[in-house]
Amino acid sequence: MESLVIFGRLLIAAGPLALPWLLGILVYFRLRRYHRFLAHTVAFLIPPLLTFYFLRMTFIQEMTRYYAETHSGCGMPGLGAAIMLLGATAFQIFLSLLTQAFLYARRP
Question: 52: domain range?
Answer without folding.
Answer: 2-105
